[in-house]
Design goal:
mainly beta, 12-stranded mixed sheet
């Protein structure tokens, strides 16, 4: 079981993994995190989508669940949503959860207001406001990045059979400037990204089930993860984060 000290350093690992990873900006996660292709649409509270993720090269197969488990308003009256992402590894029996208060697509910079981490039966830990400022701060050199000149191809309509049923999908193919190919099958019936299946850089992700009765799995009170000396360090805070910071201090049960 993790101690408070080990969880603090675990939070550090999550943070720096987020800064270093271009695959899933905005969602630091234990283990593997898929890059979600397609447009994010905020579903109603209770919506969830559960997927099977297969990493063939590493012989790893896990389940991942996306859910909206609550909402509240910021001090400016803007609606914020509690977005929960949970992964389960059947082999190790490990369960990792990240719960985020978001203002929009969690993969986009500046949309995560609060973040809570939980592993297995350990007590959930929330990243401090200082760490969240760092997570939301623009990365150095971000503006100088060269835009991907890859190609997006619409391969037409296809019927896709999955564990969640059969769907009439649009098959999209993304070819990057480095000739990496990603295939995505999308349908408006599935919440969040409309993703029925994707094959991206060796990872296969396919819908298993979805619905509208999701509840949060984090019901305990949380402890804050504070970095040593951070309480004395002033970090520039993006204007959007200042406007959207909610008044409440505890996640809804």
């Amino acid at each position: 079981m993790f101690t408070k000290k080990s969880l603090l350093w675990l939070g550090l690992i999550f943070f720096f993994a987020q800064i270093a990873s271009a695959q899933m900006p905005g969602i630091p996660m234990p283990g593997k995190s898929p890059k979600m292709l397609g447009e994010f649409k905020m579903p109603e509270v209770g919506s969830y989508a559960e997927y099977k993720l297969i990493y063939p090269g590493e012989k790893l197969e896990i389940t991942a669940r996306f859910a909206i488990v609550g909402k509240e308003k910021s001090s400016e009256g803007k609606e914020l949503y509690w977005y929960e992402y949970q992964t389960n590894d059947p082999k190790s029996k490990s369960i990792d959860i990240v719960k985020m208060l978001i203002s929009g697509d969690p993969q986009k910079e500046g949309n995560i207001i609060r973040m809570i981490l939980k592993q297995n039966q350990d007590k959930p830990m929330e990243l401090s406001a200082e760490i969240m400022q760092m997570v939301n701060a623009p990365m150095k050199g971000e503006k100088e990045k060269v835009k991907d000149t890859g190609e997006v191809r619409n391969l037409g309509k296809e019927t896709l059979k999955t564990a969640a049923g059969s769907f009439e999908c649009t098959h999209m193919q993304y070819v990057s400037e480095k000739t990496a190919v990603s295939d995505v099958w999308q349908t408006p019936q599935i919440p969040f990204f409309g993703l029925a299946k994707s094959v991206n850089e060796g990872l296969t992700m396919e819908i298993q089930k979805f619905g509208k009765d999701a509840k949060t799995v984090i019901t305990e009170e949380t402890e804050k993860i504070e970095l040593p000396g951070m309480e004395k360090t002033k970090i520039p805070q993006p204007d959007t984060l200042k406007k959207d910071q909610p008044k409440s201090t505890q996640p809804p049960k």
